[in-house]
Design a protein that fits this description.
The complex is a heterodimer of chains A (about 300) and B (about 110).
Chain A (H helix, E strand, L loop, with lengths): L11 E3 L4 E3 L1 H18 L8 E6 L3 H12 L3 E8 L3 H19 L6 E5 H5 L3 H8 L3 H19 L4 E3 L4 H13 L3 H4 L5 E2 L8 E3 L7 H10 L16 H15 L3 H15 L3 H12 L1 E2 L6 E2 L5 H13 L1
Parallel strand pairs in A: 3-4, 3-6, 4-5, 6-8
Antiparallel strand pairs in A: 1-2, 7-8, 9-10
Helix pairs in contact in A: 1-9, 2-3, 2-9, 7-10, 7-11
Chain B lengths: L34 H7 L3 E5 L4 E5 L3 E2 H7 L7 E5 L2 E2 L5 E2 L4 E6 L5
Parallel strand pairs in B: 1-7
Antiparallel strand pairs in B: 1-2, 3-6, 4-5, 4-7
Classes of the chains: A alpha/beta (about 300), B alpha+beta (about 110).
Chain lengths: ~300, ~110
């Protein structure tokens, strides 16, 4: 198989684009897809300071790498969840990338350790408050990324969600007709109220396989093992189903998710609607001041329960 | 009467009385092997898999897409790495190759 652009030996075939690329042309393709996502969804302005949420996985490290190479001012935050050896390995890989690749660009890595604040790792914390581990993890990550973005005056918060993540999430929401979640499935969420950072997903045009290939080709050392807490998770099952469909019928995932986005965009000014909706229901948490629909936000409630159960 | 050449006893296996040239494992490395012997005696491909981490051996030669089909793995969810290099689905893999089949799905 030869590269569609330069005709040298290809290293990856992309059936959904009816193309194949050598390393150089593939890197160009990936950077171009991210640049197109940022431009079309007005994600990041030239002088914006970006906070990338990194986990040690391929997507977030590839995102940090790409944003730096595209010339953006991108720092990162790693949340140490305290999942034994898995967290230790993830942390080590993030630190290694930060020192070897990001630091020469002048980028900084922030760290938040769950055990330091909550007194326990994510698994023990979830058991203590009787909530599923993945949901506890999601609440903590969303809260901490938003907190650091606001406190450190970042303009945008970027996450490594890719086409597969978004297509799987959309499938889950459609299967259960969770229409209320569909508004928030866009790749760019505005800073709708005071205390909320703007959130963007610059990798939504790239598949999980393409990002893994980018990481391998560019020698980005990432954690290949999946999170031990995520075994059997619904989202992984949706991804498997979508990948079987994609293999048989290339382009299925992008048609599904991008088609959804087109329909959303046709609805008049979704961003304004979302901002109006948020402003109508959100107000500062009585405990920490981050926006919430309740009197006290779910993160503060969680921490209060953890402290009660621990004492 | 034509005189037959004398046999060189050093080329005869003392246990089986057969000629060493018929036993590829005892042939010196510099001697070229017939293709049928190479196929019979070369080590198979070593395939490293994840989730859980394990190694399996598969007989080559085989195209990448044939290997994935044999292992019942979906192309869209895997990368195939030969040595340090990413390879496409039409690449031929041979016995003795060190192959990693890396799953691309992560997260939960």
């Amino acid at each position: 198989m030869n590269c569609t652009k330069c005709k040298t030996k290809a290293v990856i075939g992309l059936p959904r684009h009816n193309a194949a690329f050598c390393k150089g042309c593939f890197n160009g393709f990936v950077h171009d897809q991210v640049a197109r996502a940022i431009k079309s969804e007005k994600m990041i302005a030239g002088e914006d300071r970006v906070l990338v949420a990194v986990s040690g996985g391929k997507d977030s490290l590839a995102l940090w790498d790409i944003l730096l190479k595209l010339g953006y001012r991108a720092d990162a935050l790693y949340v140490d969840l305290g999942i034994g050896a898995y967290s230790e390995q993830s942390h080590a890989k993030v630190t290694k990338f930060a020192e070897a690749v990001a630091a020469p660009h002048g980028a900084v890595l922030h760290l938040h350790t769950v055990a330091q604040e909550a007194g326990a790792g994510i698994k023990e914390l979830a058991q203590l408050i009787h909530r599923p581990t993945c949901s506890t993890c999601g609440t903590i990550k969303r809260y901490q990324f938003n907190r650091v973005a606001i406190e450190q005056h970042y303009d945008v918060m970027a996450t490594g969600h890719n086409l597969d993540d978004e297509a799987a999430r959309l499938l889950g929401n459609v299967l259960h007709w969770q229409e209320e979640y569909l508004d928030k499935q866009g790749p760019s969420l505005p800073a709708s109220v005071e205390g909320f950072a703007k959130k963007v997903k610059p990798l939504y045009r790239l598949s999980e396989r393409e990002l893994a290939a980018y990481a391998v080709l560019n020698r980005i050392d990432y954690i290949v093992e999946e999170c031990p807490m995520a075994k059997g998770a619904k989202m992984l099952q949706y991804k498997e189903v979508l990948n079987r469909l994609e293999t048989e019928s290339p382009g299925t995932k992008q048609t599904f998710y991008w088609g959804f986005l087109e329909k959303q965009n046709k609805k008049q000014s979704t961003a304004t609607t979302m901002t109006e909706k948020d402003r109508a229901v959100l107000h500062p948490c009585a405990s920490c001041s981050q926006p919430t629909t309740a009197e006290v936000c779910s993160y503060c409630k969680m921490m209060a329960r953890a402290k009660t159960h621990a004492s | 009467m034509v005189e037959l050449p004398s046999l060189d006893n050093s080329l005869v296996d003392p246990l089986t009385s057969s000629f060493l040239s018929a036993r590829p494992s005892l042939i010196t490395p510099s001697m070229p092997l017939a293709p049928c012997y190479m196929e019979a005696y070369d080590p198979p491909m070593h395939i490293q898999l994840s989730h859980p981490t394990r190694t399996v051996e598969v007989k080559g030669p085989k195209k990448v897409k044939e290997l994935l089909r044999e292992l019942d793995l979906v192309v869209e969810a895997h990368l195939v790495i030969k040595g340090d290099d990413l390879v496409t689905e039409d690449e031929m893999l041979y016995d003795g190759d060190q192959i990693e089949v890396r799953p691309v799905i992560s997260g939960g």
